[in-house]
Amino acid sequence: MTDLADLTATELLAAFAAGTATPSEAVAACLARIEATDPGLNSIITLLADSARVKAAESDARWREGTARPLEGVPYGLKDIVATAGIRTTGGSALYRDHVPETDAVLAARLADAGGVLLAKLATFEFACGGAVNKTFGPTRNPWDPRRTTGGSSSGSGAAVAAGQVPLAIGTDTGGSIRIPSAFCGITGLKATYGRVPRHGVMGLSWTMDHAGPMTRSVADAALMLDVIAGPDPLDPTALPAQDSPFSAAVGRDVSGLRVARDRAFLEGDLHPAVAEAYESALGELTGLGVELVDVELPTFDLAAVAGWWIIYAEMLSLHEDHVSGIEDRDEMGASLLGAAPFVSAADYLRALRLRPVFQRELEAAMAGCAALVTPGLSALPPFIASEMTSDLGNREVPWLDAACRTSVPFNLTGSPALVVPSGEIGGLPGSLQFVGRPRDEATLFALGGAYQAATTHHLRRPALPAAA
């Protein structure tokens, strides 16, 4: 018999509609999976078992009455920088260990209003910018190999979805924090267009670079979740207008004949050999869908990564200046990032902001005539957990953020939508592809990712739970 904890949200909704399962049964299955795996993974900061059972029973009744909403009864988790009324929101920090917001973040309210059942607040690097060894709550471990990191900063979201603790989770992404843990954990993650998902009520790191979005087990689930959380918000001046048609409608669209760009220089230029080999194999699967790959050049994208970090440092200092005096209480990596921030001058920061449209135009020109850009989802395998982690590129070790953020930070700067999907296996660990689209064109990414998942089984692989436990 299929364990309900292993089903996607789309599959759960179909089972609820058919009467072969109930939200209460799904919540019970997820709670059992959490009990079995979380002692080894540490993805949960606050478990909400009692309230989830109450909400699930309400969803049971709605399905019986024919009043089900878009996510009725589907369990989900929130990265613990997303405010929840009456439920502590720690930011992964001792400074906020007992912080209880009075109101929900907009995206949290939208998930609840759509019938989702909040099961847990999930682990995060401290304030979304610390390190894998969280000083307050401990490290979150990768379900594929508990010695390794899930990446971050949406560490708990990546582990929880991969291990079947929840089918849906929210992550945030300032320099790759949705896409890196999605790639490391073998799940699907979407950083939508800048402003697509309102950020009011989400702890900020860099208002120019911050994004929030879905982390799921399938492209179809990511589209379903984005349909719920996207849309205008008067409390967020950067929020985009509503999309004309549902994002879910793009899943299943024919992609044969589409041209997809690739940059063999900066974006593919520094990969572990095994990662590079798996990436080429995945591109072969992509062309098997009738997609044509086109070589393009992004000659200044190494500078885009630098400019992105300048902006993050400067805005992080502005938002977290009050925490400088308590820097000794911070995680080691978070403290080092915050400690470096004052060395970015106002001139550096303003120069980076002025360069932003230059990189946006460069990307637009490179993608002319192409539907999207494809890149590796990861440059190296997930590193082993340590206070100072490094990534193995085959011929040398580098600081893990240098490798992990190489294909992600530039697209935070441009604000482009980017979708990560599992793309194979590398020494028992997941491989990953990233599709990057034009601003406001998540639909093409869902079409490409959906077609890729319809033709392959990489996203169906699950970690061995006894190893995780």
List keywords for this structure.
469 residues, alpha/beta, Amidase signature (AS) enzymes, two-stranded antiparallel ribbon, 37% helix
Helical proportion, percent range: 25-40%
> What is the 3D shape?
globular
Rounded mean pLDDT score: 95
| Second CATH tier, the architecture | Alpha-Beta Complex
Mind telling me the CATH superfamily name? Amidase signature (AS) domain
CATH topology label: Amidase signature (AS) enzymes
Computed over alpha carbons, the radius of gyration is: 20 Å
* SSE string: HHEHEHEEEHEHEEHEHEHHHEEEHHEEHH
* Number of domain modules: 1
Spatial order of the strands forming the largest sheet: 1-3-2-6-8-7-14-15-11-9-10
Total count of helical runs of at least 4 residues: 15
Structural summary, described in words:
There is one protein chain. The chain is of the alpha/beta class and 469 residues long. The chain has a single domain, classed as Amidase signature (AS) domain (Amidase signature (AS) enzymes), CATH 3.90.1300.10. Helices cover 37% and strands 16% of the residues. An 11-stranded mixed beta sheet has the order 1-3-2-6-8-7-14-15-11-9-10, with helices on both faces. A two-stranded antiparallel sheet has the order 4-5. The protein has a two-stranded antiparallel ribbon with strand order 12-13. A hairpin with a 4-residue loop joins strand 12 and strand 13. It starts with 8 loop residues before the first helix and ends with a helix. The model has no long low-confidence stretch (mean pLDDT 95).
